[in-house]
Amino acid sequence: MSDKIRKIEGITKESTQAMIDEALSVYPEKARKKRAPHLAPNDAASGCASVKSNKKTVPGVMSARGCAYAGAKGVVWGPIRDMVHVSHGPVGCGWYSWGTRRNLMSGITGVTSFPMQFTSDFQEKDIVYGGDKKLKTLLEEAHELFPLAKGISVLSECPVGLIGDDINSVAKSSAKDLDIPIIPCNCEGFRGVSQSLGHHISNDTIRDYIIGTREFAEPESPYDISLIGDYNIGGDVWSAKSLLEEIGLNVKSVWTGDGELEKIAATHTVKLNLIHCYRSMNYMCKVMEEKFGIPWLEFNFFGPTKIRESLRAIGARFDQNIQDKVELAIAKYEPIMQAIIDEYRPRLEGKKVMLLVGGLRPRHTIGAYEDLGMDCVGSGYEFAHTDDYDRTAPEMPDATVVYDDPSEYEFEKFADALKPDLIGSGIKEKYVFQKMGIPFRQMHSWDYSGPYHGYNGFEIFARDVDMAVNSPTWKLVKAPY
Amino acid sequence: MSNLLNLEVKKIVETPPEEIERVKEWINTDEYREKNFARQALVINPVHACQPLGAQLVAHGFEGTLPFVHGSQGCASYYRSTLNRHFREPAPAVSDSMTEDGAVFGGQNNLHEGLENAYSIYKPKMIAVFTSCMPEVIGDDLTAFIKNAKQKAIVPKELPIPYANTPSFNGTHIHGYDSMLLSILQNLTEGKQIEGRCTGKLNLIAGCDFNTGDYREYKRILKEFGIPYTVLADISDTFDSPCDGTYNIYAGGTKLEDAADSINGKATISLGPYATPKTFGWIKDNYSGKHVSMPMPIGIEKTDAFIMKVAELFGKEVPASLKNERGRAVDAVTDSHQYMHGKKFAVYGDPDYLMGYVSFLLEMGARPHHILCSRGSKKVEKELQALLDGSMYGKDCTIYMNKDLWHLRSLLMTDAVDAVIGDSHGKFATRDAKVPLFRFGFPVFDRVNKHRYPLIGYQGTVNMVTEICNKFIDIKDETCEDRFFELMR
Fold first, then answer.
1. What is the pLDDT of residues A11-53, one digit of tens each?
2. Could you read off the pLDDT of A317-344 as tens digits, one per residue?
3. pTM score, whole prediction
4. Domains in chain A, start-ordered, CATH in brackets?
5. By the 8 A CB rule, do B73 and A60 touch?
6. Is B469 known to be catalytic?
7. Angle at A91 between CA A90 and CA A97, to 5 degrees
8. Nearest residue in A to B104, CA atom
9. Which of A38, B1, B73, B408 has a CA-to-CA distance to B129 between 20 and 30 Å?
10. ipTM confidence
């Protein structure tokens, strides 16, 4: 949390509200009434959410949101590398989410890791007669063809829940027959209002089917921790994990980027859960706290300022041994970070950035931009809840615009008014803004770059931000004639 | 410890390295291939997507048209991001965000609210509605819903709202293409047929083609002929739009007026017979003029057939410029045939593309050794077999119908080829098999600008030959012994 309230020249609560009103002026009255509470100037002093969130998307406005299945397949279950993840239903959902999130995996594809598309490819007859039989056969086939897979998740797509299939009982009997964990996940896309419910449902299935079923072979240590809510986008986990190990901690399991099922199942024996993406995995941290007494701590590994604060906060949960190593690591990396800042900051100082990402980065990356001298002039989430917006308020400059599940039209209008030097959002937004000549980085996938976590990540982040903002190609956009 | 499954709590056991090694070898064996091909229920790495994706592609091909997904909102995000990634272009589309209550009460409220909002905010000239799974399973009545929307004046009566049922549990993206195109043409041409009127134009349908270069190439060829045309579902300007500092949500597409008047055309030609059976069938019964459905003009022979058909339909000589163009393309293929002759290929993709790849390879003296179709009919298989039977280079080539890319991997590991033609998803199998992958299909997520280089026409042949032959030469340069490394190739 930043200690002082920052202001951006020319941005006041009134100017931001006027911009919002203007954007909503074309909406029919009902839609305008629904959207208005989701858009507001930031109230940095209050430290509280200024917008409503986690409500149904207004039909027809062009939202960036996905669905519960996307949250389950893409975010929580999909990244676990040593499992077969079955997209249960028609072919599309699995096909679209195949390899498109960049949750990298180690292992040998098809042998020990499975970054592939497994589907039951529902046909008309499966809708009419039900897909349970097919599922049973499919599970046997998967087990036979991929004998080293440690388990199978069954991720329901819309039709499964609508036709009344009972994947839970199929999973139960097949798990017994095949003697591997088979986890049914009722994450149909029509459930809830966004990806977020898919995260929650998936967390619940981990609670119900996985946690507590394994124990680590090696003896416990006071430095055992778990890294929660890091999905290894572009290798983030590998960067974060090496830093945590450098300060003397044992990262016993990772949820779920490059994760391993059995290690996740044994997480209940660690001493501290470190959570990066609070939105998608706070549920399980709370469960482990209640059920096993494991404390948890939110941290932020974007940019040297936040990394330093986080390392010290983590160190404070351990003994002097770890705290000494934390200071050694900070002392080792800060000069390197300073050199990076010295290189890029002069070219980025005072540049404005707008963000629209999922459930964490719209607040967590602000510090990293500020390390480079940039100001965040607008931020918002696709699927955050009030507790996320509470955490966002102190991170953003006062009176800047906060937008929850904005439509493409609103986002475009705000960009038009604020004239940012960079927008960080998703693939659906990228080319809209690039056509407008606004530099853009995909901040879900790191735009096929990364990692961005940890000290190693900041170097890449800084390079990428500079490359986007200062590319000479933007000067070519306007023809000289 | 407790867990729902009541499984005993076990110690974590790492898989022994020798077991990993054994399985790693095993998945490359004939024994594994047999097990893999015995699969009945599990589909692994399919080539095909679902119907609404093709429907959205069509919608983007018409002027001022907003694609509208009736169903869960995640579906729309998936189609959009797929198109964004392939074209590196915006793909604006809305959804009416059906949720649990839609399952209970049906989706009419969502549809109406969505239409009202989308119309007010994005000011489309046409809204093309298509469905994802949910309304299809619960049985929403789109006809009634849209009629009601107009009766209640939620949207203007004159706003065209064609709609298509595009269930994802039936067919693939090419079938969604067909249904949406049919619906749009039916809607726009209603009451537009005028006795005795002839636009003098050729209506051209490219089929479910994700290459903007192809559309531009068709238009260029017709300009060479001097034949006026209407390309229906023309996505070229939508998905290859200029970066000039402004964003135009509707950057291209067939003019609605031209589409409406297409029913009075002199002739209509569809170059995606497997992507347009319903549309073409309807056109045949309803459009004025002549009607032809023929294969995508990939390779010299299929391009010749297309060029001759166009000349015949309009009673024109093939212009000298196209004759010369053919000559130059043939020059390119004869000059480089030695780099492809006898090479074995595996090819996979949608039926219309597949016919083109196979025909092209055979005329180059290359062998389409494994031909894999993710979803296709007996008719597709028969036509492919006829192509193989017509050439000595088709001997011993095998067609695999309704197989996926995990089957392909088994084929590549047990019965090797020199290269593969397909889309980006094949890169995992080709990396394991250590052979190049030529990304001519859809989607291409990992190379730039591929969609700007046509595959069709004589120019398309030059593009394919250039890419393939130079890659083989690169491989030779990169892998040959030093003493065989030489200047000329």
1. 999 999 999 999 999 999 999 999 999 999 999 999 899 999 9
2. 999 999 999 999 999 999 999 999 999 9
3. 0.98
4. 13-62+349-448 (3.40.50.1980), 68-192 (3.40.50.1980), 224-331 (3.40.50.1980)
5. no
6. no
7. 120
8. A162
9. A38
10. 0.98
